[in-house]
Design a protein that fits this description.
The protein has about 700 residues and is an alpha+beta fold. The protein contains 14 helices and 40 strands. It has four domains: about 35 residues, no CATH class; about 230 residues, no CATH class; about 200 residues, no CATH class; about 140 residues, no CATH class. The radius of gyration is 31 Å and the shape is globular.
Length: about 700
């Protein structure tokens, strides 16, 4: 409190003051006690949504514990999900806003909340708190990104028009899809909260106990990495049909829960793996001693092992010279891939598929491959293990962080078990498969009681691919050929045996080379060949196609396949697979218009059948070096799970199927070079010298 002396007291001598004190201070007091002057505040409006959420507790999370403490600025939302926080001026824009959605909250769409969860918005964009802004806030914090960069990345990954906006507002672009994606995120989060709750308060790997905030962060991190799969679940046709009347309907809830049952395990988080993830997250947050060293080194990212004559691995290595910053301030590293099959070894750098090692990418000035020995670049790591501006093969750009755990003297079997407990995916493969046989998936490592030597480390990496330039497979099979104009035109061939769609031409691969992008545009107009109902017979059972049976393989181009169902001939159990073939044709209104399609896939040969238009967009063509590249705008959300954007590349009188990698976030567990070589010695693989 403030104490202000009155004029009378200032006029009194020290002796008089003592006298007054001795007399008990009778009469008018010499001091006046005043309340402190409140700090000036700014009203900050916040809206909390899955649907609009009533009675959510909203606060500035000043101590970053993902909870609303008594001394933090806070308030409760009204029925519209809105609250206005009186934020001290000094705190405006400094701390993220969180919304604790308890079981006393009510969602305007889905009703009373049955499982509590927490959402967040980044400190510099707090107007809306939603399941999507939660991923933005978490990604920005863990990947050292600005809010704008994190939002841009997640928007591109998801295919949504916005990940920061209020999708509950009438007329918001992509509102229905965004609402379903948000609801799927909430249901998945609630499922994970329930499944992982027993681990809260239990020991984390490395000491201490797991907090609710750490569990929340682990779930949000995992869902950010799985956002494409979340979007795929939310846009599943069964979900879309069930949620057409609103995401709060019982049918919608049931459909989403069915998808979440398959989606949630992909987070890799269980009461067993959560302690490992929390320990990793703590290690990253408190990393030290990770600064770049000017010594030779490397790490083993992935290993498959059957025996000494059948194995494969991927490593990254640097010599001492490469680890020393060059004149441009960057350090260098190289990628090593090796595969031994029945004693025959091959070595290369780019792509898991040896046949794709010669892919060409535009590197800013020319089209180039990434041969063995190619030097990738990055800014030297700081003491906390963070690096930025990493360039891979001249075409992919990323940031990342690393933290290390010393495993010197620890049993190899124990460390490998810890590595396999990492709740990560290597592409689509769980880390439980690290070091197993590629032939049958079993563990054939014989490690006994061998321990790792001094200097061995288990390293955890977190990376964000921010952008990439186009690339393509140079092999002849990737060149585009087309049919004659009569077949391209399609049409109803059901009652006309002389129709071009019934000619022998359609029974073989097309033979007319596409030499320019303009030829491509003129050929593929989305006009199918229409046939009578088709059949597939297996084991005395006949399966029928739709009637009519429409083939669009000659008039549309593939964007990608969503799903992983295998093709089947003699063992067919349906006419179509469960995959969705996403395709494009050059048709529609306006300049450079395209139409996107979702097509069924014939189970016998995989051809696209009975396509349904799912959206429109446009194409652009730009010159890159000595090539021309076609890109597509406004792709449908059904493409969210594809790891690339489809492009077409024209070079040297040929047109190729091309790709441009999407932004992504991912985590990896690796052994450093010392540990990797020790493991190689134990199992009979030649050691690596950078």
């Amino acid at each position: 409190m403030l104490i202000r002396l009155k004029p009378l007291s200032l006029a009194l001598s020290g002796a008089a003051l003592l006298t007054l004190a001795a007399c008990g201070g009778g009469g008018d007091s010499a001091v006046e006690v005043l309340e402190p002057v409140p700090a000036p505040t700014t009203n900050v409006p916040v809206k909390v949504i899955d649907g609009a959420i009533k009675n959510a507790l909203v606060c500035l999370d000043k101590n970053a514990n993902n909870a609303c403490d008594a001394d933090e600025t806070q308030g409760r939302t009204d029925a519209s999900g809105s609250v206005t926080l009186a934020v001290p001026d000094a705190d405006v824009g400094k701390y993220r806003v969180i919304a604790v959605v308890g079981t006393d909250a009510v969602d305007a769409d889905s009703g009373p909340v049955t499982v509590a969860y927490t959402m967040a918005a980044p400190s510099d964009q707090t107007a809306v708190v939603s399941p999507l802004t939660t991923l933005v806030a978490q990604t920005a914090a863990t990947q050292n990104l600005s809010t704008a960069d994190a939002a841009k990345m997640l928007q591109e990954i998801s295919g949504l028009p916005s990940v920061m906006g209020d999708y509950t507002q009438s007329g918001a672009p992509g509102a229905a899809t965004a609402a379903t994606v948000a609801r799927t995120l909430v249901v998945t989060t609630q499922q994970q909260n329930t499944a992982l709750a027993p681990a809260v308060g239990t020991p984390a790997a490395g000491g201490g106990t797991i907090t609710r905030a750490e569990m929340d962060a682990a779930i949000a991190n995992a869902l950010a990495q799985l956002l494409p799969q979340v979007v795929a679940a939310a846009t599943n046709p069964a979900v879309q049909a069930a949620c057409a009347a609103g995401v709060g309907s019982a049918a919608c809830t049931t459909a989403i829960q069915t998808q979440v049952a398959a989606l949630a395990p992909q987070t890799g988080l269980t009461p067993t793996t959560l302690p490992v993830q929390v320990a990793i997250d703590r290690s990253v947050a408190n990393a030290s001693g990770e600064a770049n060293t000017t010594t030779a080194g490397g790490n083993l990212e992935w290993l498959n092992f059957t025996d000494a004559n059948n194995w494969s691995y991927r490593m990254f290595v640097s010599t001492a010279a490469e680890s020393t910053p060059a004149a441009d301030g960057m350090v260098r590293y190289r990628e090593l891939r090796a595969q031994n099959t029945a004693g025959t070894r091959v070595d290369w750098a780019f792509n898991a598929d040896y046949g794709r090692r010669g892919d060409l990418h535009f590197n800013g000035t020319a089209w180039a491959d990434c041969p063995l020995g190619w030097q990738n670049t990055q800014v030297p790591r700081d003491d906390k293990g963070f690096t930025k501006a990493s360039t891979y093969c001249g075409y992919s750009f990323s940031n990342g962080s690393r933290t290390s755990v010393d495993v010197s003297g620890q049993a190899m079997s124990s460390v490998v078990a810890t590595l396999r407990a990492s709740p990560y995916l290597y592409g689509s493969t769980p880390y439980t498969k690290w070091g197993t046989s590629a032939a049958d998936g079993t563990d054939k490592l014989v490690l006994g009681t061998t321990v790792f030597p001094t200097g061995s480390k288990l390293q955890y990496y977190s990376n964000t691919t921010l952008s990439a330039l186009p690339g393509y497979d140079v092999r002849p099979a990737n060149e585009i050929f087309t049919y004659s104009a009569a077949v391209l035109a399609g049409g109803d061939a059901r009652n006309n045996s002389a129709h071009a769609c019934n000619s022998s031409e359609v029974n073989v691969s097309p033979t007319i080379r596409v030499s320019t992008l303009e030829q491509l545009i003129g050929a593929y107009k989305g006009t199918p060949c229409i046939w009578g109902q088709g059949t597939v017979t297996n084991n005395g059972v006949t399966y029928q196609s739709l009637d009519p049976n429409e083939w669009s393989g000659q008039s549309t181009l593939s964007i990608g396949t969503v799903g992983s169902a295998a093709l089947s001939g003699p063992t067919a159990t349906a006419y179509y697979t469960t995959n969705a073939l996403i395709r494009v044709a050059f048709s529609g209104q306006g300049a450079n218009a395209v139409t996107y399609y979702n097509c069924k896939q014939r189970i016998v040969n995989g051809s696209p059948r009975n396509c349904t238009a799912i959206g429109t967009g446009t194409y652009t063509i730009e010159t890159l070096g000595d090539g021309r590249v076609m890109k597509f705008n406004n792709p449908p959300v059904e493409t969210a799970t594809l790891t690339y954007h489809r492009v077409f590349v024209e070079r040297g009188g040929k047109v190729y199927w091309g790709y441009q990698d999407k932004p992504s976030t991912y985590q990896r567990a690796r052994l450093n070079l010392t540990a990797g070589n020790a493991l190689f010695t134990q199992i009979g693989i030649p050691t690596v010298t950078p």
